[in-house]
Each structure stands twice: as C-alpha cells, then as structure tokens.
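job 3f2a | input accepted
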Amino acid sequence: MKHKNWLMLLVAIFVLIALGVIRLNIFYKEYQHTIQTQKIYSKLTFEIIHKLQVLIEEKKNATLTIALALSENKKLQQALVDKRDIRKYLKGFSLGLAQETDFKNVWFELVDRNGTVVSRSWSSLRGDNLFGVRELNNITKVHTLMDVDQYNLSFRAFVPFYDDSRQFIGFLETITHFNSIAKKIAQEGFEPIIVVDKHYAKRLKIPFGEYFIDDYYIANSIQPKVLQYIKTQGIERMLEYQTHYEIKQDYLVAHHTLLDNHDKEMAYVLILKPLEKIDRSSLDNINLSVNIITLLVIVALVLILIGFYNRHEKYSEKLEKGVDTQRYFVLFFIFFAVATTLFCIALQIGYNQKKENFIQNHNNAIEKDFDTIQNKYKTVAHTMYETVINRQSIKQIVHKAYESQSAKDLAREELYKALIEQYKFFQTYDVRQLHFHLRNNESFLRFHRPQKYGDNLSGIRSTVEWVNRYHIPISGFEEGRIYNGFRYLFALGDTISKEHIGSVEVSFSVHAIAREFAHLRSAKTGFFIDKTVVKKKVFSQEQGNYEDSPLEDFYYESSIKKQLEREFKHAQMEQLSPLGIQSANKKIFDNKIFTLSSNDQKHLFTFVPLQNPVTKEVVGAIVLQFDNATLMAFRYNYLVIFGIGLATIVLTTIFLYREYLSKNLFRNLSLRTKSILDTQKSLIVITTGKEILETNQTFLDFFGHDSLESFKSKYRCVSECFIVHDGYFHPSKIPPQTLWIEHIEKLHPKDQVVLMRDKNATQYSFAVAQNYYQDNSYVVSFNDISQTFQEQIILQHKIIMDSLTGAYNREFYKTNITKIIQKREYNHQQLGVIFFDIDYFKAINDTYGHAIGDEVLKELVERVSVSIRNDDYLLRWGGEEFVVFIATHSLKQAKRASEHLRSMIEHHTFKEIGKLTCSFGVTLHQYDEAIEKTIQRADEALYISKESGRNRVTTL
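job 3f2a | predicted structure (956 res):
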C-alpha cells in the first residue's frame, strides 16, 4: 500500500491528459473537416459555374456566328421583299448544321420590319405578328440575348436586313437551346436543371419540353430520379439560396441565375452532384494524420509516466523510513489542483481579453470604412450638385413654380427635361434619387418617380425641413416615403435675388452602400429598417416593398434583400442564436457598432446602426457577416495552450514531487560519499554560484585537472568556463550582482544550455540541472547534449537560410516578419521594403551557363550583405529576385539606401562576368497593412523600373 496513492495519481493524470488530447483530436478534425469541406465544395462549385458561364458565352457567340453566316445569302433578303415562305431552305440549313456540328436543333425565323413572320424553319406557321407576343428591342442592330418565348428558353441572335436605299426591311432570328449546354455539364459528372421562372413560364404557349413543377418550367431533359428529388425537396425551397452552393440532403447544389435584358431573374440553373461522388480523400488523410499523432502522444505520455513511476520507486527505496511521503503526496496533489484552477482562470481571462480587443479593433476598422464609403458618395453628390444643379438656369426653372399652378406644372416638365440625361448619367455612379422640394417642404419633382409630386414632406422628412429652415446642407441616412437611402441635401438660392427657393436632394440606395461595404470587407451584408418608421412615413401603397426580418423591431427592404441574395451577398441571420437575435434587436438602438458571434462560432455579425441626421434617432442598421477565421484560430490556439499548459502543470508537479524525493536523498548523503558522485557520467559540481565547493571526477577529467584545487587555481566558478554564444546561456546575459545559478533556474528548460571547451579545446553543449543542497549551495549537473543540440542548430539554420546564397529565405520571412514589423513599430520606425532583381539574368545563364549564374548570385549576396546594416534583412525571394527589409524613417531615406545598393552593384566587377545591374522597387509598410500588400506594391514599383529602362529605383 506504500505507493498506492502515487500510482493512483499517475493513473488519474494519465486519464485527464488523455481525455484532453482526445478532445483536441476531435475538435481539430472537426475544424479541419469544416475548412477542407468548404474548400472542396467551393472549388467544385466555382469550376462548374465557370464552365457553365463559358459554355453560355460560347453558345451566344456561336449562335450569332451562324446567324451572320446565313444572313450573307441574298435569298433571305429577297424572300423578305417578296414575303415568300422559304421554310424548306431554312430547314435544310438547320439539318446541315445538325449533321456537321454540335448544333442539333437550330431554328431560324425570318421576320419583316412590322414584326410579321415571313418564314420559319421548324414550322409551317407564318403570318403571325411577334410584336404582340413578346418584347422586341434593337431589331435594327446585330445583337444576341437569352429570352423566353412561346416555345422555350433559348439563345437568340438578330441580324437586320436593309434594302439598297438603306431602309430597314426585316431581320433574321436564329434560335438555339440549352440542351447541348446541359449535356456538356452532365459529361462533367453533374446533373443540371434549368428552371424558368414561373412569371416567364406563363409565356410558354407551345412548350418544347414537358416538365412543369408548380408553374416552373424545366427547360432541359432530366432523369426521373432527379425530377422526383426536386419535387420532394420543393422547387421553391430549391430556388431559395444565399450562397453559390448548398448541401441539400445527399446532394451538393450549385446555383446560377440567368437574367433578362432588364437584369430581372428569368431562369435558374441548379447543378447537382451526389455527395458520395465527390472526392474527399483529403479528409481521410487528415483523420489518419491526426489519429497517428494522437496515438503517438498518448504512447509517449504512457512511457513518461512509467519512467516517473520507476524513478519514484528507486528514490523511495533509498529514502529513510521516517519520511512522511503520504503527507507530502497530499500537499503536492493540492498544489496540482490549485495550479490547474488558476491556470484555467488566467487562460479564460486572457482569451476573453484577446477576443474583446480583436472585436474592438474590428469595430473601429468597420467604423472607419463606413466613414470612407460615405465620404466617397458625398463626393459624388457634391459633384452632381456643383456641376449639374447649382446653376442659375436650373434655379430659374424652380423659381417659376411659385408663379401659378399651371406655371408650376410647366416648370416641373421643363426641369425634368433639363436634367433627365444628367440624372441617368449619375445613376451609373449609384445615384438613386434626385428630388427637388419647394421651400414649404412640398415635393416638387422626384426623378425616380416623376408622377409622384405635391405631397407635403413636413413631419415626414426632417432633413428637408432642416435645409429649408436653416438653408444649410445636411447629409446622412434617412427613411423616405418611397425609398430609404443615404441623402445629401442642399439649399437652392436664387443667385441674383439671394432668395431661398427650395432644396434638392441627391441620394444613394442602401444597397449601393451595403454592396460597397461587402466588397471592401469580403463579407455578406444586409439592411434593416425600423418598423415604426416604415408604418409612419412610407406611402401605404409602397409598404409592400418591406418584409419581416428575424429582428422583431425591424423590416427587410425586399428589393435590397433580393438583390443581395442574387449576388450571394445577403447575410444569413439564421446562423445567429435566438438570444443573439434578441440582443442585436436591442443593441442597435444604442447607436454603437457592435459584433456578435454566430451560434457555431464560425461567423461574426457586425451591426452598423443608422441614425437620422436631424432627430438623432436610430432608424435602421447595416449588418456585415464575416468568416470568423481569426477568432476560431484564437480558440484553437487557446485549446492547444490549455493542453500544453495542463501537461506542463502535471509534469511540473511530478517533477517537484520527484525533486522532493531527490533532495531527501541528498540530505542523507555525506560529502564523504563523493565516490557516488564519481560514478556519474555527467559533470557534477556543488557550488554557491560564486565558487565551487566540490566536483566529481568526470568534471575534473573534462577540464584536464588532477584536483579541485588545481581547477580553482585557474577558475573560481564554473560559470567562467561558459563560452559566450547567442544560442547559449552566459552570465553576461543577466543583470549585474545576480547569481547565475539562481537566474538559470528561472529560465525555460530549453534555455538552460551552456557551451564549454574540454581540455583539448573541443566545444560541447550541456543541459544544466540544479537542486538546492544546503547552506545556500546547489548540486549542479551538466549533461552532454552536444550532438542533439548542434544538429538542432544546423537544422534550424538550414530551414531559414537559402542553400545557394546564404541569404535568408521565405521560411525565415514567414516565421519572423511579424516580429520584424513589431520591432520597427516599437522603435518608432517604419519598415522599408526594397524589392530588386538582376537585369537580364536569363542572358547571363544562357551565355555563361547556370553554374556561373549561381556564382553570380552568391557574389551578389556577399556584396549586398556587407552593404546593409546589421539589423537589416536580405532575403532571396526566388530565382534572381531579392527583398531587403530595412528600418527607416521615410520613403526618401529608403530610396537613398536603395540608390546606394544600385550604385554599388553597378560599379562592382563580378569575377566571372564583369559588370551587371539591378532594378529596384521601394515602398514603406503602412500601419495595420497586410505585409503581402506592401511586398506587392514594391513588386509593382520594380516592374515600373523594368519598364522604364532598368538599373533604376522606383518608389511607390
């Protein structure tokens, strides 16, 4: 029973750590599975959608090519003039294409200028008028489009015909279908379904296919099992998507929307692939690798604990019988419990603090971006006002509105004609509304709804009241009677009479702002507006433009939601927990940007409240949805730290308990039993940290002394034998008046390594272990780890150094760039990036051979290395490209350093080839900028140097 408690402790420790390792195993595999699965599905979706888009463009171009080729035949033009049916000729041309090309079912239609069908290749029906059946635009120009007519969804190419007097007499319409595209997609292992929107499906009077599902038309042939799958899932549900792909039951479903000429949704392409047929072997490799590592960790843990147990047995046998081991066992167990609890609390506090700091910095960055985007649109609004509106001629038109009712109506028409073209132009810059108001706040002219006028905006539009009252411009988000938007309002004053005559508003859709936000931040987005505002201010006939959102007090604006969904940019609010949604609903009204995590912690939702610029009330919000990669990495790192920390506490507890046994052993030793020390292979000394009290024979033999007195005649303390080296401990690295033996004890075990020379001047690496002995003295052992340590240093050197030139490599960059940037910022300096390469290096290789080229690279690195400062870094970026990271205070200073290098290289004579030159690109790393972007900018500057004649320095 003597060691029963000790054995139970080891078993408990093993179970605890093993459970932690297994939990980390499961978490890491889940994390990697999620990431890798998303990558696989995203890559597969991107490739097949890209393939579809290419096929569509090819089909459009091919259809137009066929139409143009057939239109060269004079027989068609004569048939138009004579109103003659040439169906046999058109059908023959179609059959010829079917035999010689992939176009198996091309239709041709000859139509006169009035829209009357003269002849069709697929039908004897003629004489019907197309203008009454479908919309025909631009028939006097060559063009292509996708459209739905009474037969099918198809590609159409139009080629007009003109007579000798250049009068339009009709056109040839060439029609192809989607079946060939669907077949090519199917050849890639997918099941394509082309679904015509139910509103367009109403046009189908004589449908080419036979499949209809809930008023939706299927425009291609599909397998019965796929048709049944769609019916089971529900076509409406299949068409509700917010991302490029979704997982529905056992299928990966990729989505693509086909738009008509007015950018309205005309059809949808659903591309299905069974999950079982998707190659996910990389996930199995992850599982295997992680499981093997987990098994090895557990085996290593077992071996370590067995080793500790055996050591404990040996020490226990040597202890005197009077030692109270059970009492100390309880004390060490309490130490373990307390240390673990404190560690967990500290770790949680650290994680929460880091998360809070990240969220705060994230919110601050979002706020800056929001201001930047608003300023961009403010510039557009001011430009429109100053260049188009703020003219005396425009103000005179508005002034006429005060003369009489008839004059007001005429002024409205005149103003509309005067500015409609400019309004259409500025719509390309996302301008949504141009709205003039009279000084009594009456709506005078809405360019977006010219038929809506005369309503009084008092009590509805506070910004309009503000400008008309104070004659001062104002801007910000404001709800309206029709649309909501970011509005920029200006006062209109007669230039001559100085009389205030009204106000004008230039506004931008929230969709434009949200879309810009999403693009800038690579995020999804959404827009909410306060329900009470909509009910109070929006025209009753316009309130159908809004729909319920997950937030109780807010609506979605339907058009914005639909646009974002079509662009796969709409935030998926259902990923927030019910508590998160409730919290967001309340916190928006606090008028502060805030961020919430999704239910699965994989996404962040940042809410930007929108405030009325006059009333200062929160009336809406923009939400941004981000992938939570950073915080997920934090979480994973903290779990790893927890595992490592727990293992460290366990091993430290065991180590301390073992040291207790060791010290009890040493207390029972006498200095007269020195012969025991002499049996040790390690170098052992007993020292106060200032002088040596005793050594073993191995120590004396190492330094070549016969006795301790002989050694002390040369050295007072063993620390005087330590060699100064960056990779090793040395007393010169510690504060004065500090005992080295006490300082080294506080270091991490990996840093408790010294370098010493033996009697033959050969250097050896030793791991230092020390134990308090008695009377302020320590027993110190030096264990030879030379071979292992030197191999580690050599390996580390090989990893971060370029094998050819000796310059640092990209592995050094990946490992150290963050520290380099932080060091510069701490010293109030900037990081200069100098990107350079050898001019015409290929010619050197071609002329002298690659061996000489390698020598040139090595000599160049030697010359540059001696020309830069000790705290600068030279990296071989690849081939003949190099990067130098320097500490600098300005771009001008960095350019001088680059000019120095350029001049040195130009005037140096290389051993094998003589002279060469280099071109340089220089830039500065900006605060909080991704270093990759900085290097890209330096590379662009280098490209400019190349294009400008080489052997020069360009800054950006």
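job 3f2a | Confidence is low (pLDDT under 50) at residues 318-323, 669-673.
job 3f2a | closed
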